[in-house]
Specification:
single chain, alpha/beta, Rossmann fold, Helicase, Ruva Protein, domain 3, 2 domains, 5-stranded parallel β-sheet, two-stranded parallel ribbon, 13 helices, CbxX/CfxQ_RuBisCO_ESX, ATP binding, ATP-binding, ATP hydrolysis activity
Length: about 260
């Protein structure tokens, strides 16, 4: 869907270069639906670079906002704050995270959040920017239905599914390979294979907890495992390989720690 828009934008440039007098396409405003940690913000940042490279936006920037960045405490303040964020995002992408929080009132009207949402919608067609509304799938239904013009202005809805245990392991391995992090240089023991770690995650962490964390587990698990490694090593340990190798016991302890948090 989005690639098709980008392709069409490039074709329009060719059409104009050959004399066709066609107007500009409407910005690809979107709704991102999905649980936390499914990559919505990261995709928005990648999208900014893609749209900038093809000339669809002037700057490869994403201005990330939430309710507190848009909503004021008294009459008149919300419009001022919202317009300031719109100006800040001009030429790039305005990413409204947890957009459903703008509609906290039961009737979706008697709240300053609705004012912020209406302000964004009223300026989307005239502003030089792309707007992405993001949030959990179920509460975002309220946003989709809040205004008869919403679906007309935001014509693309993209769902981000939960990560599978195997995907979480892949992201975890990628994080271990990153530089300048607290995990730089650490590695997994030979028995910590992709399938073995994925099976551990699937059996040890309840599905509901995995859906709340998703990609976040890829950072949390090795960090917890490293702490367990530190705990079981002697302070006199000098062997470099031993100091830098996370074993299955360390990962098992990390999974148990995450699972215990799910009880609260």
């Amino acid at each position: 869907m989005l690639l098709q828009w980008c392709k069409g934008y490039a074709l329009d440039k060719k059409r104009r270069s050959q004399g066709a007098e066609i107007g500009l396409r409407k910005p690809p405003n979107m709704v991102f639906l999905g649980n936390p940690g499914t990559g919505k913000t990261k995709v928005a940042r990648m999208l900014a670079h893609i749209l900038h490279n093809i000339g669809a936006i002037r700057h490869a920037k994403v201005v990330e906002v939430q309710r507190t960045d848009l909503v004021g405490c008294y009459v008149g303040r919300t419009g001022i704050k919202t317009r300031a964020q719109l100006r800040k995002a001009e030429g790039g992408i305005l990413f409204v995270d947890e957009a459903y929080r703008l509609l906290t009132a039961e009737d979706n009207t008697s709240d300053y959040g609705r004012e912020a949402l209406d302000e964004i919608l009223s300026q989307m067609d005239s502003k030089d920017l792309v707007v992405i509304f993001a949030g959990y799938t179920v509460p975002m239904k309220k946003v989709l239905d809040c205004n008869e013009g919403f679906r007309r202005r935001v014509g693309r809805i993209i769902e981000f599914p939960d990560y599978t245990p195997l995907q979480i392991v892949d992201i975890m391995n990628a994080k271990l390979a990153e530089e300048r992090t607290c995990l730089q240089g650490f590695k997994l023991a030979p028995d910590c294979t992709r399938d073995a770690v994925a099976a551990l995650i699937e059996s040890g962490i309840p599905a509901e907890e995995r859906s709340k964390r998703n990609g976040g587990l890829a950072g949390t698990l090795p960090e917890y495992a490293r702490e367990h490694l530190d705990g079981r090593l002697s302070a006199e340990t000098d062997d470099f390989d031993e100091l830098m190798t996370i074993g299955m016991k360390d990962l098992e302890a990390a999974v148990s720690q995450v699972a215990s948090c799910a009880k609260f």
